[in-house]
Specification:
Strand order of the largest sheet: 3-4-5-8-9-10-11-13-14-15-16-17-18-19
Number of helices: 9
CATH superfamily of the largest domain: monomeric porin ompg
CATH class of the largest domain: Mainly Beta
Shape: globular
Distance between the termini: 61 Å
CATH architecture of the largest domain: Beta Barrel
Number of strands: 19
Length: 438
């Protein structure tokens, strides 16, 4: 239960919501465009959320960010230009950092980060989700309290992959920490005459993924097995929404490449995915299914669509989206607006950082140094991450995004100076690397 207390309103305004509501939100523009049928896929780092068993299948280091705009600079201008151009062609209304269901609360935001680092025999996966509901005000007598309710979750996991003939099997698990802040304690005491206002939770995720002939996959995962502390003193423990996801995915062109030793998928590929989901919240349980499709041309442009059927949750409708592979980073945009009963706008914008050139350029090594340098100038750390300097690239990338977020929320000179330092370090390192490899 979330609330605002305001004496001028002569009462209490109640905003009723599920405990740990944000855990029901499925991240990833590619996944959402395919109706979140993603438990049998590992195409980006968001697989950490859908199925820890997929972590071991990710072959290159990857960072995924969703609904987080690039730091101010050339990269942000490029992202705005791409989204603006695609808005004209596809009649969409996407922005680099869209709000989440703005009709519900005008400033509500959902941000998601994920990272996968391959290692011998498997990989490590980390993800972070932030559900920020904006700034609220509450008046108690003559005192006005300003607070910002939010929920966050951090998980870290490990996955291994084994090959048995034509079969590859991945098994993984992750541990999750959750913190939910609803209101300051003094407000809770004034309204409900008890202490509380926040909750801490712990959960476990586990999954298995089986892949045959490179293009046929089956996945099953169990997510959010755990509990949370009560929001109010003496209250009941919070139940995490328990997910059981079972799905399969087919990439027929990949299967043809496997059997006939061709490279058709570099120029055209098709994916079909189907998933059944069972969600248990306290004593209630409901099921839904989804199916998604993706067509990719030249490993550069992808169009995605899907269908979600969840009659209990009243979410029945189509999803769609697109993706662009620019080598250093991939941009994905998706919406599930038609699955909501009200006429609303709900967009997801995702950027993946990795080394993933379009297939027809994969063997052109001469481009790498130039691409790495340009990327380092556009977004701090992007070029370093692209060329394989994982620690350096991740530190510059995450640092620049943190300073950018700090500047967005608080302003002031310090975040601007910090962002400038990130750009300076990134460009300087890229120049040194370029001169050393001439």
């Amino acid at each position: 239960m979330k609330f605002i207390y305001n004496k001028s309103m002569n009462g209490i305004f109640l905003l009723i919501g599920y405990e740990y509501l944000f855990l029901l939100i499925t991240p990833g523009a590619k996944a959402v465009g395919m109706a979140s049928a993603f438990s049998a896929l590992w195409d980006d780092a968001t697989c950490v959320y859908y199925n820890p068993g997929a972590i071991g299948f990710v072959e290159k280091p990857e960072i995924s960010s969703m609904n987080v705009a690039f730091p101010p600079g050339p990269g942000r201008l490029l992202l705005k230009g791409i989204l603006g151009t695609m808005n004209l062609f596809l009649e969409t209304t996407t922005t680099p950092e869209p709000f989440w269901r703005p009709y519900f609360l005008p400033e509500i935001r959902y941000e998601y980060w994920a990272m996968v680092l391959p290692c011998p025999g498997g990989g490590v996966g980390v993800d972070f989700a932030l559900f920020d509901e904006g700034i609220f005000e509450a008046t108690l007598d003559t005192t006005t309290l300003e607070f910002e309710p939010f929920d966050m979750a951090v998980s870290i996991g490990y996955g291994v992959k084994k090959e048995i003939g034509v079969i590859r099997v991945g098994v993984g698990a992750s541990a999750k920490f959750i913190y939910s802040y609803l209101a300051p304690e003094e407000l809770v005491e004034a309204v409900l005459d008890t202490s509380g206002g926040s909750s801490i939770g712990f959960g476990v995720n586990a999954g298995i993924l089986v892949n045959l002939f490179s293009g046929l996959s089956f996945g099953i995962s169990l997510l959010n097995l755990g509990k949370g502390t009560p929001y109010l003193e003496g209250g009941e423990a919070v139940s995490l929404p328990l997910f059981r996801r079972i799905g399969y995915a087919i990439k027929p062109v990949k299967v043809l490449d496997y059997f006939f030793h061709t490279h058709i998928s570099r120029y055209f590929s098709f994916t079909y995915a189907r998933e059944d989901v069972r969600i248990q919240e306290k004593d209630e349980e409901h099921c839904y299914y989804s199916r998604g499709f993706e067509v990719t041309l030249l490993d550069f442009f992808s169009y995605r669509w899907g269908e979600s059927v969840d009659t209990v949750g009243r979410r029945v409708g189509k999803t769609y989206g697109y993706g662009l592979n620019l080598g250093v980073f991939r941009i994905g945009v998706a919406t599930d607006t038609p699955t909501y009963p009200a006429s609303i706008s709900n967009w997801q914008v995702q950027v993946d950082f990795s080394h993933h050139l379009p297939g027809f350029l994969e063997d052109n090594d001469k481009l790498d140094d130039k691409i790495s340098f340009l990327a380092s100038c556009m977004v701090p750390g992007a070029g370093q991450f692209y060329r394989g300097s994982i620690g350096k690239g991740a530190a510059l990338l995450l640092g620049s995004f943190c300073f950018s977020e700090w500047n967005y929320r608080k302003g002031g000179i310090l975040p601007k100076v910090g962002l400038g330092v990130m750009y300076f370090l990134s460009v300087t390192d890229a120049l040194l690397y370029l001169f050393q490899h001439r």
